[in-house]
Amino acid sequence: MNEALPDVPEVRVVGLPQLTSGFDLVERLDLPMHLKVHGPLEPLGGEQLAQLAERINLRGRGGAGFPFHKKLRSVAESAIKRGVRPVVVVNGSEDEPACRKDTVLINRAPHLILDGALLCAEALGARTLVVGVTRESTQRSMEAALAERGLSNGRRSALRARVQRNPVRMVTGAAASLIRSIDGGPAIPPGRKISASKSGVGGAPTLLSNAETFAQLAIAARIGPERYGNTGLYDEPGTVMLTVSGAVARPMVIEVPTGVPLRYVLQLAGAPPVTQGVLTGGYHGKWIDAATVDEAIVSRNSLQQVGGSLGAGAILPIGQDTCPLGESLRVAQWLAEESAGQCGPCYLGLPAAARGLEDVLNGGGPAALEALKQVAGNVKRRGACSHPDGSAMFLESTLKAFTDDLAAHVLGNGCGRPVTGVLPLFEGGRAPTGVPGGGSEENGPSRQKIYVDWTLCRGHGLCADILPEVFQLGADGFPTVAQADVPRFAEAKAVRAVRRCPALALRIEEDTRAQAPSSRTNLPVLSQGRGRRALGR
């Protein structure tokens, strides 16, 4: 079974390195080595920076692909109109089991990311910079980078910089979740969609993008748009960072120019010569079938044209020896577990969709397939964040890419292949914490037990909808367990299940045998020196 990738897997490069320059010299580029490899960086005015981003067609590399120059101008306009200083946020929350490119950059080239972020902060007149991370390794590396620039010595400074550490969860990486956590709330979407460019951290206009985006901006600012455009495609210049895993001999993060054939990337990682399909863009991405793989090249437009997605840059082939629908079911179940549990499309729709795919695999026939399609369609564009949309897109692309296997399961006795677990997932469906010898407060041992009072239960089934991690309904429509441990990440949903049970048949009791949670301390607020020094001057 393919386990979760390490924080820093093998790193390769096709052609001349840009983001990965210096990786062949040292494991981590500290500030002196960073300046030797990349050189100093001159500040740019706001419009200069926006024009640079526009000329190189820089888009967000976190999945959405929004044009960076539009985001930059929107933040500047909002800040000027309201007369407030904006905030710059680097999103390094890479919490998908199949993605490691941003984690590699933060661990090995943190100053390249800070270069881009500080360019934006100085151009916008921002006085606050926050780097959001979820792993212990990325927290250590980024805090060390701030210290190396003299930004953590407590001196008074015009700009305040700090690292925000959040739990490892899929929804943590959403922009709204990160902003909410920076403001002191939980790292989950707030339930309403608000443009960060207009109202983000503390209500101020906020420029938020992922780590690779800021690193790409720093490269372009150094070498200029003409030289930057000499690499890759004319309409999508530069390089792309990819994480390649799944059915490969050598999982890796690889920097490639846009325009490289996808088949060549797969060969470098040791993928099977003939695949059943390739998942592009990660677990909020899309499958492309085996016949399409040879047509695809590494670019956002090319992958969209063949039905794929660049997304967060994850590429996952699967071989001929595993059931593609079974592999997809494991991912669908994981996506359902990653729900924030605060809107119906997530905490009801995604578990229902996973159960629907399981019904199809178990011989539910055409009726089960139609039910699955209906559920997947119903969760789209109705959630509090993009998690239901991305999960539904993954499910719908699964049904489209593997039509032969789908027909074998719907009309026959199945495809006959086992499920080998080739797509990487965190152990037990949850993410590791990076804490030696144990889990985080959210992922640690259960503190609670939930009980069913059979004298009151009337089989309404709402508990199984709200808390599918614990309750499943039997053939008679009643829960199949009388008592169960509540996973730490699902404690809030357990309380909701108790409160909403129409028959008042549920209760929660504290498990006194469980270990008390470890205390957590707030991260210090880091300060920054003058702008030009922060840029390596």
UniProtKB/TrEMBL annotation:
Residues 511-537 are annotated as: Disordered. InterPro entries: ComplexI_51kDa_subunit, Nuo51_FMN-bd, Nuo51_FMN-bd_sf, Nuop51_4Fe4S-bd, Nuop51_4Fe4S-bd_sf, Soluble_ligand-bd. It comes from the Bacteria. The keyword Lipid biosynthesis does not apply. One of its GO terms (molecular function) is 4 iron, 4 sulfur cluster binding. One of its GO terms (biological process) is cellular respiration. Residues 325-369 form the NADH-ubiquinone oxidoreductase 51kDa subunit iron-sulphur binding domain. Signal peptide: none annotated. Residues 515-525 have a biased composition (Polar residues). The keyword Transcription does not apply. Its cofactor is [4Fe-4S] cluster; FMN. Keywords: 4Fe-4S, Flavoprotein, FMN, Iron, Iron-sulfur, Metal-binding. It holds the Pfam family Fer4_15. Belongs to the complex I 51 kDa subunit family. This is Ferredoxin.
